Amino acid sequence: MSTPISGTHFGLSAGDYHATIASVGATLRTLEFDGRPLIVPFDADEVRPAFRGATLAPWPNRVVDGRYTFDGVEQQLALTEPNRGHALHGLAAWLDFEPVDRAADSVTFATTIQAQAGYPHRVEVSVAFSLDEEGLHTTVTGTNTGTSRAPWGTGPHPYLVAGEGRVDDWTLTLPADEVLAVTEDRLIPTGLEEVATAESGVWDFRTARRIGDTFIDHAFTGLSRTADGLATVRVTAPTGTGVELVWGEDCPWVQVHTADQPVAELDRLGLAVEPMTCPPDAYNSGTDLIVLEPGESASASWTIRAV
Questions:
Q1: Where does residue 92 fall: left (phi above 0), alpha (psi -120 to 50 degrees), or beta otherwise?
Q2: Which end of the chain has the smaller Cβ count within 10 Å, N or C?
Q3: Could you give the 3-state DSSP secondary structure of residue 15?
Q4: CB neighbour list of residue 228: distance below 8 Å, 6 or more residues apart
Q5: Within its chain, how far is the Cα of 66 from the centroid?
Q6: Which of 298, 293, 251, 301 has its CA nearest to residue 276?
Q7: Helix (H, G, I), strand (E, B) or coil at 291
Q8: Considering only CA atoms, which of 265, 264, 236 is closest in space to residue 169?
Q9: CB 294 within 8 A of CB 147
Q10: Backbone angles phi, psi at 246, to 5 degrees
Q11: Nearest to 304 by CA among 226, 242, 252
Q12: Residue 1 reports pLDDT greater than 80
C-alpha cells in the first residue's frame, strides 16, 4: 500500500479525543472531540493547503524579502511566499519527519534541518504530540547540532473550528494588549500599537465578541496570563461549542488569521491561531529571537482542547 502524499499517518486516541498526525511537516491533520472537528482538516492524499496544522521552524511567519543579517553575515533565503516576496514559515514544513517514539495516545517525530543557502546551520527538530482527556499537547524542541550559532523560532499553524458556521459567526476571546501593525499589501511589520486604539479598536478582542467580517492577519503580544503563566485564545460558536488554544511563557506572541480566501467554499473556514516564540520578521528585528549555541536546545509547548 502506497504512502499518502501527506506522509505516514498516526492516529491518537484518548477519552473523547481523536487526532491524526501526518509525518510531512509533523502536521496535525485532524483533531476531533466526540466526533466534532476542532480544526480544519485536509485529506491524507492532498497536498496540505495553507500550512494547515504544520510545524513551523526554524522561524514562524515571515522573513521580509527573505533577507537578514546574522553574526555579521547577510543571508538570502528562498522566497517561499512569492506573491508577497518573503520567506514564509521556516524550512521544516515540507520535510518528512521520522517517528522515534509511539504509543496509542502519543507520537514523537524528529528531523534535521541541514545547513543550506540562507540558513548555514544544522538544527535537529523534535515534535512530540500527546493526547489525553485534557486535549492535544504539543512540544517542539530545536537542538543546534552544528558548529555555529543558529537563529531559532517556532510555532504551530492550526485553523481552529468552533462548531457550526464559519469565522464570521463565532465569538473570539484574545487576551492581548498590543497588535503588530503591518503594511496592507505585503504584511511587513511597521510597529506595535495598542489594540484599544489601533484602527479604532477593530482588533480588540480582550472582551469576547463576535468576529463578524473583521479581517485579521496580525501578530499580538502583551498577553494576559494566569498565575502559572498560561495564555488562552478561545473561539465559540452560537450553539455554545468551542475550542481553545493554551500556551505558556515560551511563546510571547500569537498570530491570528481569519483565513480569508478568494474561493467562496474555502473562505474563512477556520481561525488560524499560532502561538509563536518570536514575532514576524524576528530574523531582522531581533525581537524575542532565540539564538541556539552549538549543543543548546529550546522548547515551546501548547495545547488544543474542546470547550
A1: alpha
A2: N
A3: coil
A4: none
A5: 19
A6: 251
A7: strand
A8: 236
A9: yes
A10: -125, 135
A11: 242
A12: no
pLDDT digits (tens, 9 = 90+) for 84-97: 999 999 999 999 99
DSSP lists the bridge partners of residue 68 as 75
Cell of 90: 521556516
Distance CA 30, CA 19 (A): 5
Q: 3-class SS at 133? A: coil
What is the band of 140 on the pLDDT scale with cuts at 50, 70, 90? very high
Write out the three cell numbers for 198. Answer: 489601533
This prediction's pTM: 0.97
C-beta separation of 250 from 301 below 8 A: yes
| Cα 215 to the center of its chain, rounded Å | 18
d(CA 77, CA 51): 19
Handedness of CA 261, 265, 266, 268 (dihedral sign): positive
The greatest distance separating any two alpha carbons of the chain, rounded to the nearest whole angstrom, comes to: 56
Q: Which residue has the cell 473570539?
A: 172
